[in-house]
Amino acid sequence: MSIKAYRPTTPAQRQKTTQDFDQITTKKPMKSLLKSKKQQAGKNNQGRITVRHRGGGVKRHYRLLTHNLPKNMTYTIMEIEYDPNRSARIARVKDENDEYYYVIADTNMKKGATFKTGEKAPIEASNRLPLKQIPVGSEVYAIELTPGKGAQMIRAAGASAQLMAKENGYATLRLPSGEVRKVLETCEASLGVVSNLQHQNVQIGAAGRRRRKGIRPTVRGVVMNACDHPHGGGDGGRHGSGKPPRTPWGQLTLGYQTRHNKKTNRLIVTSRHEGKRK
After folding, report:
1. Could you tell me the pTM of the whole model?
2. Domain of residue 278, residue span
3. What would the pLDDT profile of 91-109 be if each residue is shown by its tens digit?
4. Domain of 257: which CATH number?
5. Distances in Å between the alpha carbon of 20 and those of 7, 14, 67, 143, 230?
């Protein structure tokens, strides 16, 4: 896969790039696997903004993905499709009973190919099986955190985790963030790397393109008035000198722990922040 540049007919076009769509085999999604999607614009049922910088954007239908495929089956890849709601490509697959599903596509998936699920599936790209059956050193994606719940981790474009070790009923994984954590060996994962590897290298290039994605502008705190942000105020010179960075509501943003999940602390071998602390 490669990045494609536009002809520089305007200043914005000069900077803009896009991903290629060579892997995609159809432009028309399957109607029975679509669902209408209401734009919430980052607001709650009282109309108050609960997530900033959201709103507008083009209308999109949600694709009903299956993150927990039935086990011990062979699936045929019918189409590779674009999904406007996620960075990865999706695959339309058909099982032995002619049932259709959408799943996250990996870099090896092609129209007409097959893959298998279940404990007896061979160690081949795209196959989905428990971590205890996968060799150490393999790259995996779409990983379960709770057996039977379906894929929860490693679902974004170009992502993969490496299986580092297996002992005492747990598999140790190195995640893309640098975190090393344990997951039960009975959890399932798919072999391979998530599709659309070049997603992170795309240059947006134009403000309107980001607005069509539903992302509204972000204003820096230092250019606000003192009443609007802790970084605001001043005479146009030095801003917020001697103050640690904060949110608009005064919450510290650097070196401040925001994760408080004591239940799973014991499963994290190395935090994703360990390298930064050194």
Report:
1. 0.85
2. 220-278
3. 999 999 989 999 999 999 9
4. 4.10.950.10
5. 15, 17, 26, 27, 43
